[in-house]
Design goal:
By secondary structure, the chain is of the alpha/beta class. The chain has helices spanning 3-9, 49-61, 63-68, 72-83, 96-106, 109-118, 122-146, 159-197, 210-221, 224-246, 269-274, 278-289, 322-340, 368-376, 392-398, 420-433, 467-473; strands at residues 255-261, 293-298, 306-314, 345-350, 356-361, 405-412, 435-442, 455-459.
Length: 475
């Protein structure tokens, strides 16, 4: 058909057709492009640029993540679900299995318990992310072995079998989620316990240094003795917290200033008001949890001239093993007490004439590396006198202890025989320096030590629940 015949059929009387009006939408020609895999998000969670960079850094830092995560997006997802205060899922993800894995995790109560310890904690979130990645990688290996049909199509005869297969995959994912959360919770608890034992707990100096905490935990995890000591120190520290709370202080009507803290009862009105502002609520809660909120500072009636706490641990051969671990754990708990009382602390490892190790722990940030060295080393020799009776006056000066009312705690398993000349020198120094000496003697009679100390406790073992240990931790 030629153009002339076509115009006649359209009854246009030979007039050319008008151009189409560009202002009118041509809805009949619009075709929605099919959804493609490229349109889906590479991450299962809503992750910003910082989260993606953190995912890249984690893969570069961790050999375990390198073996399990396929790319930075997976690492960012596993880190984000642990670190972010309120992780949000994307509508879809290019890795549907990862999307469903994280969705199931968000719905479990065990994850919510773990999340309280990992949110906004870079080191704890990194540990949790590693466990999530490892279990997800294992889950994908199991999926590959089963070779499921990716298109989801099935015939009528295959319907029942397909439903069973889908249920099997869901149960496998739930098991993987449960195992990942349980293992992450265990290691995060070890991290928290180690950091608190070594003076880097929440609100303490160094607690906001994730690199230092990660290096410290790596060292503790690689040393069996340190792990045992830190675990025991947590038990002693909890007893110390209870004993210190029972001590009565007076003069709380006298407000002398403002200090950072986390005590709700001492918060300034300005901090309480911020809890009513939605934009400031989370930040205020964070500062309260980290003991950085503004609190009233009260004047108590306890003497302000309190001096240091010196802890002497017997490191003779007979103390090796459990005795040494519990003694050093008790020393860490006493150092924690000193810090809470804003006192100076000193650790002394002593073994007769065989050697000694001195470590000063000021009220500020401790030297974590030197503290780990002191805890992990052991002299292992000894003599008839494994407490520094003759050497304490010299050590007091060498360790740099400040003047003031001083508590000396000696832990030993030896029956001490002290020559009379040492006895007199020690008692003279004790009176001049205002020292209160307490001895814990393990499985032996105190011998001559009984006449030289203000208190002597003979115990079969250093049990945190014993009255003798509780008395020492209440100083």
């Amino acid at each position: 058909m030629n153009p002339a015949d076509l115009l006649k059929m359209l009854d246009l009387n030979g007039k050319p057709p008008r151009p189409p009006d560009s202002s009118l939408p041509i809805t009949s020609l619009e075709v929605s492009p099919p959804e493609s895999a490229e349109a889906k998000s590479p991450t299962a969670l809503v992750v910003d640029e910082w989260g993606l960079r953190r995912g890249r850094d984690l893969i570069a830092e961790s050999e375990r993540l390198k073996k399990t995560c396929s790319d930075e997006f997976a690492a960012a997802d596993f880190f984000g679900i642990a670190f972010e205060p309120d992780p949000q899922l994307m509508p879809s993800c290019s890795d549907t299995r990862r999307h469903r894995f994280l969705k199931q995790m968000l719905e479990t109560p065990e994850y919510r318990v773990l999340h309280t310890d990992t949110q906004l904690d870079d080191t704890a979130a990194g540990i949790a992310a590693t466990h999530f990645a490892e279990q997800f990688a294992q889950l994908k290996k199991e999926d590959t072995k089963e070779k499921p049909r990716e298109d989801g199509s099935r015939s009528g005869s295959e319907s029942a079998g397909g439903d069973a297969e889908e249920l099997k995959r869901e149960m496998a994912a739930l098991r993987a989620v449960g195992k990942a959360v349980a293992e992450a919770e265990k290691e995060v608890s070890e991290l928290k316990e180690s950091a608190a034992a070594l003076g880097m707990g929440p609100g303490e100096p160094g607690s906001n240094d994730p690199n230092a905490i990660a290096a410290l935990f790596k060292r503790v995890r690689g040393n069996l003795s340190l792990r045992k000591i830190c675990d025991l120190a947590g038990r002693f520290r909890r007893v110390a917290q209870s004993k210190q709370r029972q001590k009565v202080t007076h003069g709380l009507d006298d407000v002398v200033g403002v200090e950072p803290g986390g005590d709700i009862g001492r918060l300034l009105p300005s901090e309480l008001m911020k809890l009513m502002v939605p934009e400031l609520e989370l930040d205020t809660l964070r500062r309260i949890a980290e003991s950085q909120a503004l609190c009233r500072e009260y004047h108590a009636s306890e003497p302000v001239g309190k001096g240091p706490i010196l802890i002497s641990v017997d490191e003779s051969g007979s103390m090796e093993g459990v005795k040494a671990h519990t003694a050093k754990a008790l020393a860490l708990a006493l150092a924690w007490v000193a810090r809470k009382q804003r006192r100076w602390a000193g650790l002394i490892a002593f073994s007769g004439d065989s050697g000694e190790r001195l470590l000063a722990l000021p009220p500020g940030r401790w030297d974590e590396s030197k503290l780990c060295d002191w805890l992990s080393e052991f002299i292992g020799k000894g003599s008839d006198l494994d407490v520094p009776i003759k050497e304490l006056p010299r050590m007091y000066k060498e360790i740099g202890a400040p003047p003031g009312i001083t508590d000396v705690v000696m832990v030993t398993d030896a029956k001490c025989r002290i020559p009379p000349q040492f006895n007199k020198c020690f008692l003279d120094w004790k009176a001049a320096t205002r020292v209160r000496a307490i001895a814990l003697v393990i499985g032996s009679s105190p011998g001559d030590l009984a006449s030289m100390c203000d208190e002597v406790h003979q115990v079969p073992a250093l049990d945190p629940s014993s009255d003798a240990v509780g008395r020492v931790l209440s100083i």
